[in-house]
Design brief:
heterodimer, A: about 110 residues, mainly beta, four-stranded antiparallel β-sheet, 11 strands, B: mainly beta, six-stranded mixed β-sheet
């Protein structure tokens, strides 16, 4: 157990739908990062939050959004889902802005 | 922006043999460098990291990596591979002036008995 908790572990949904992925960071970590891992794109950085505020944005689609709550857990919202959004979504956390991240075990999203 | 290249998509070694996984980075200044390992169905686990100082970094599970500025490389090594080391290995580079950490495409390690 890495200390970073992601739920759900698996999600199957239809195209056009909206889903929410949840992440609880390791205790004491203020930064949360979201990554998408797919076979063709590899591991892509989506977005980072630090202590409730958006800190950095990567290759995140406009259909996707995220937030970090006062208790530091984070949610990644994916809407108008397409087949190509099927992937593993990882959350990672760290104490500060940079450093060794601790990854969760991921949420496998399948869009059918 | 920084980038990482892992030239080897797949490597097969015999159990007990030595291992070297290659990683080349592109970044204008001294980067933060990391190696992660991902077992099937699992998240990524940090093996080791380099921020500054001694260019030979020791990590967990008997791994080490050497930062070579002149070659823009950060290769991962292990003197004797165990069957449990079979996994996907990712090199990552972070810039010192932003929060964007870039991962390489990964190298899949197969260990032969």
């Amino acid at each position: 157990d890495s200390g970073v908790t992601q739920t759900p572990k698996h999600l199957i949904t239809a195209t056009g739908q909206r889903v929410t992925l949840r992440c609880s960071p390791r205790s004491g970590d203020l930064s949360v990062y979201w990554y998408q891992q797919s076979l063709d794109q590899g591991l892509q950085f989506l977005i980072q939050y630090y202590n409730g505020e958006e800190r950095a944005k990567g290759n995140i689609l406009e259909r996707f959004s995220a937030q970090q709550f006062p208790d530091l857990h984070s949610e990644l919202n994916l809407s108008s889902l397409e087949l190509g959004d099927s992937a593993l979504y990882f959350c990672a956390s760290s104490v500060g802005d940079i450093g060794g991240y601790t990854f969760g075990s991921g949420t496998r999203l399948t869009v059918v | 922006a920084q980038s990482v290249t892992q030239p080897d998509i797949h490597i097969t070694v015999s159990e007990g043999a030595s291992l070297e996984l290659r990683c080349n980075y592109s970044y204008g200044a001294t980067p933060y460098l990391f190696w992660y390992v991902q077992s099937p169905g699992q998240g990524l686990q940090l093996l080791l990291k380099y921020f500054s100082g001694d260019t030979l970094v020791q990590g967990i599970k008997g791994f080490e990596a050497e930062f070579k500025r002149s070659q823009s490389s950060f290769n991962l090594r292990k003197p004797s591979v165990h069957w449990s080391d079979a996994a996907e290995y990712f090199c990552a580079v972070g810039a010192r002036d932003n929060n964007d950490m870039r991962f390489g495409a990964g190298t899949r390690l197969t260990v032969k008995p």
